[in-house]
Amino acid sequence: MSTPDISHISSEDYSLIYEPAEDSFLFLDALEKEINEIQEIRPQICLEIGSGSGIVSTFLAKEIRLQLLSIILFIIVCFLYIDRCTDINPRAVSITKTTGLKNGVSLEAVLTDLVDGLAERLKKKVDILLFNPPYVVTPSEEVGSSGIEASWAGGANGREVINRFLPLVPELLSNTGIFYMVVIKENNPDEIGSILSKSGLKMSTVLERRSGPEFLSVLKFMRES
Ligand SMILES: C[S@@+](CC[C@H](N)C(=O)[O-])C[C@H]1O[C@@H](n2cnc3c(N)ncnc32)[C@H](O)[C@@H]1O
């Protein structure tokens, strides 16, 4: 599976939006590992929170389209498949759209906080939900900007943005929907698993990797069958 072309993003852009890094590439590797399972649920709506450069949504949209082509359902499912992304950073929203176009996929990128304004419309409809959140442990005062700091500033335990999103996950996921999220050890993945288990979502770990001081994991949540 090929990494999307992001050569249009300049170093000036990267002073304003998140430059794909180890966490982004671990996320791509996890989605590649999961692609058969993702295909099996025939996703119609994919939603990424915090798309940044757009690399993750573009990667998945391209792959779903290619796989569909190979099973000749392209025309039917291509019309149905919708890939939405949100970001709180206006520059990230416009770059996400360009990244999609440059790679031949159409992404509906929306400037909003998490899923504000979209949650009702997407209720129980999201088949693939993705979030590489701002997970770094920082002072709480750093959380809440719409600039580059929003890429990493996670506040106490790196969980302040994650914690706001967790209650929305069971509301958004379709019956067969899957939620993938990047975390570090300091976010306490087991506690996240226990919070979502109260809504009937079961956690597993798709991939883990050490990157410098960070121990990264990609978590997966699905409804218990
Ligand atoms: C770690 S970056 C990930 C970017 C990209 N998905 C990737 O993997 O390379 C986190 C992204 O989340 C966005 N973000 C942070 N807080 C957000 C919020 N409350 N609502 C929407 N997006 C948010 C940031 O602007 C940033 O683009």
Written overview of the protein:
With 225 residues, this protein is an alpha/beta fold. It has one domain (19-35, 43-183, 195-223): Vaccinia Virus protein VP39 (Rossmann fold, 3-Layer(aba) Sandwich). Helix content is 32%, strand content 24%. It has eight helices and seven strands. It has helices spanning 22-33, 35-40, 55-70, 74-80, 90-102, 160-165, 169-172, 189-197; strands at 45-49, 82-87, 108-111, 126-131, 173-184, 201-211, 214-223. Strands 3-2-1-4-5-7-6 form a seven-stranded mixed β-sheet, with helices on both faces. Helix 1 packs parallel to helix 3 and helix 3 (55-70) packs antiparallel against helix 4 (74-80). The chain is globular. Residues 18, 20, 24, 27, 49-53, 55-56, 86-89, 92, 113-114, 132, 134, 150-151, 161 line the site of S-adenosylmethionine (SAM).
Give a quick summary of the entry.
This protein is of the alpha/beta class. Helix content is 32%, strand content 24%.
